[in-house]
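Hi C.,

You asked whether I'd gotten around to modeling the 390-residue construct. I have! Everything is below, sequence then structure, no commentary in between.
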Amino acid sequence: MPLQRLVMLIFFLQPIAFGAWLPRIPDVQAKLNLGTADLAIALLGLPIGTLLTLSFAGRVVSRIGGRAAIIYGFVFFLAVVSLPAFAPTVTLLFFSLMILGVALSTVELGMNVEADLTEKVTGLIIMSRSHGFWSLGIMFGSLLGAGAIVIGAPPHWSILAIAVVVLPIALFVSTRLPKLPESHHAETAATYRFKLPGLALIGICAFVFGVTMTEGAIADWSAVYLRDVFGSEGAQMGLGYSVFAFMVAAGRFSGDYMKGRFGPVAIARGCGIASLAGMLIILVAPAPAFALLGFAAIGVGVSVGFPLAVTASAALTDRPAAASLAILSFVALLGFLVGPPIIGFIGEYWGLRIGLAVLMVPLFVSLIFTHMLTPRATENSGRLVEREAV
């Protein structure tokens, strides 16, 4: 299998088990008898785990390479992904999510480093489609989670079963990635010393924060929102995220072509407007069908934001790509993971409609910083071939 297809397949496999967790969050909330604010506190475990990891993950991945980070990260991640569903108390739910955050950030950083390197080695633009396969994977996982609800399978056993099935497949695929020369890793790790990010990287991070904050909020609260606001039950609660994830995937699969035709800034601005429009639809929706339309629009809106930011950050010449991507991943995952708790705290007192309305602010900030994706802001030292990966 060609290198680019191996990378895309890894992006598909990685989030399946995590996607199965998302529709089960209301079940875990009900099992532990948690209020919205209590659940929000527990969800803080994920961003804290990320904070603990990405402060040093860039140097580690620079030393061992994306391939090794993917292999070891898969084992760690799939071993702990079901722990939150097993948690018997809110305290253990918090700490299990913190462990999951450590594992999640490690494997995803390795994947993005490997995808960027694949673009450089093959001359093919694959970043957006790779993340499109990630979206398909998490959508597939969320559908499995919704299916488990239908058949009455407990959250912990269903998520664990999915992880057990995915692990050998993921290891089989990831071990077939070609090894990079040791000299590359040694030189990168030896010559790099941490320094504060420049204005270009700060601007890219400001752009991506609102995008991933919205993505994380929809992931954690879409099922609860449909249940609490519209009275949806059973598998219907998972439809919001499934629709959202499908549109994210659709946007990412067309993202590489659209980027080559219109440029990253124009695509990012169009998607930013779609996100804001979708959020407005959700906030004023009188029925679940209208809310699903809003989730679809937001899915298109946030689809290419992170892939565009990854490519822009990796093109910076003031530090190794792994170091830039570690900082970007830190900010992106921070947005993805802190958004849900913030919305939970607000939703506890003013309702989830008001909680989700807060996302309008970071989405608008992202729209303002789309100009940082222009090639001159990233000090691009070369051009990749603008053609399809086959």
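If it helps when you're writing up: The chain has 18 helices and no strands.

Thanks,
B.
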